[in-house]
Amino acid sequence: MSTPQTNPTNDDSDDEKNQQSSWMDLLRGSLGPYTILLNLGIALHAIDIFVITTIMPTVVSDIGGISFYAWTSMLYMVGTIVGSAAGGHVRSRLGTRRGYVWGGLILLVGTIACAIPPDMGTLIAGRVVKGIGGGLVIAQSMALISDLYTPSIRTRILATISTTWTVASLFGPGIGGVFAELEYWRGAFWAQAPFVIAFVVMSWRLIPEKSSSEPHRPLPWRRLLLLAAGVLAVGLTSQFKTHLSSAGLIGLAILLVWWTFRRDEASDTKLFPSKALSLFAPVGLAYWSYFLISITYTTLLIFAPLFLQELHDVTPLMLGYLSLVFSTGWTIGSIAVAGLSGMRDRIGSVVGMVFAAVTTVAFTFSILSGTIVMITVWITLVGFGIGITNVLMTNYGMGVAREGEEGITAAAMPTIRALGVAFGAAAAGLVANMAGLDEGTSRETIYRVAAWVLGFTALIPALAALVCYRAVSWGWQFRTGR
Q1: What is the mean pLDDT of the chain?
Q2: Where residue 302 sits, what CATH number does that domain have?
Q3: Average pLDDT over residues 444-466
Q4: Are residues 346 and 401 in the same domain?
Q5: Which of 301, 393, 401, 410 has the maximum number of C-beta atoms within 10 A of its C-beta?
Q6: pLDDT value at position 471?
Q7: In a shared domain, residues 64 and 207
Q8: In the prediction, which pLDDT does 410 show?
Q9: Which long-range contacts (CB under 8 A, 24 or more apart) does 274-282 make?
Q10: Half-sphere exposure of 413 (CA within 13 A, CB side)
Q11: Are residues 258 and 323 located together in one domain of the fold?
């Protein structure tokens, strides 16, 4: 077993520094403008996700294309994963400033393309471009956090990003709803354009230029296309009703994604850090935790509304409220542990996932036979546990990056999370259909499906807890020399 490559600053020796840091440090001196810029970039991506789901009924009534209703979100996800996977390469080739600016410019082009389409095909193309731009921005934002924020304050900036996602979940549907009510869905995209322009201008003015010493190499299109094909395969599972077809597409997707990582490991122009999927390397452990966390919340947020609507007669407004309290719990969990570092943050990451697993079980029982009050309490606590582990393992992943791979390790994190979203949705859909969801939505059927899907979901954070425990024990062995 090889010795883990760790960043010595991410250790218990940082505790004293961490105690001296405060939330105001994010806005003091040179960090203030960066904090604002990074959260603006995250917000532009996050709000769009919530806007599109709100305006789509209005879109199809205007330009048609109902048979491609789900493709606007699915291909946006494909674009986001491709963009985030390419983020580290673009950054190393163009430099920190120009790489970030180009991500913003592509996002702007995609935003305008989504505002002017005459038909669904053009809108889908615009969504792909917008997804690529958003992926580039998110990936390079994570790399900048690794560059600009020391470990003693890094968990705090990561917690503010969680807050930004919560704010987006609150305002995104409202923005989309206003323009949908006005029957001017294009305005939802035009309204975003000035903020994207402001983001590009701020990026050019604020981001320090850091040119790469590496020789310019071509973009690894084959691996990016291979990855896109894998994501597309898993996304298409929702279009097929038979269990065999869905399972076959998931298997094909796993093969294509694995092949992408295998080719990348042997390449000189990496999209991902070394040993990105290894359970015997610190970075691999961090990445697996992101993947499993994404599966957990994706499954919950996709199927919980159906179970609540059918078993508890919950209104659409209340469903939106429950999504908000989940996000709020996530944010509170992130903020609560933002001051931890070293071994304490790794132990905290295990506790967070154990807590999420236990509360997911409790949430399952409350869905099956509880009250809406208890459902609200448990879904908030699930978010709380996930928020704890997410922020701590993100900081851990940045701290254990191999020397020379710090930027690409941080930049690839959003790709792993997005892959978790894609595979989580597909796996949960397969479990639901095998439990009988394709037979109808009678109360008895939904009750059975809820038990199976939420039971499956509760296993995922339990697995993530084991992964995080492996990271804890590895860090202890490293410091004690065992």
Answers
A1: 86
A2: 1.20.1250.20
A3: 94
A4: yes
A5: 393
A6: 84
A7: yes
A8: 92
A9: 274/402, 274/405, 276/412, 276/416, 279/467, 279/470, 280/1, 280/2, 281/2, 281/4, 282/4, 282/5, 282/6, 282/396, 282/400, 282/471, 282/474, 282/475
A10: 33
A11: no
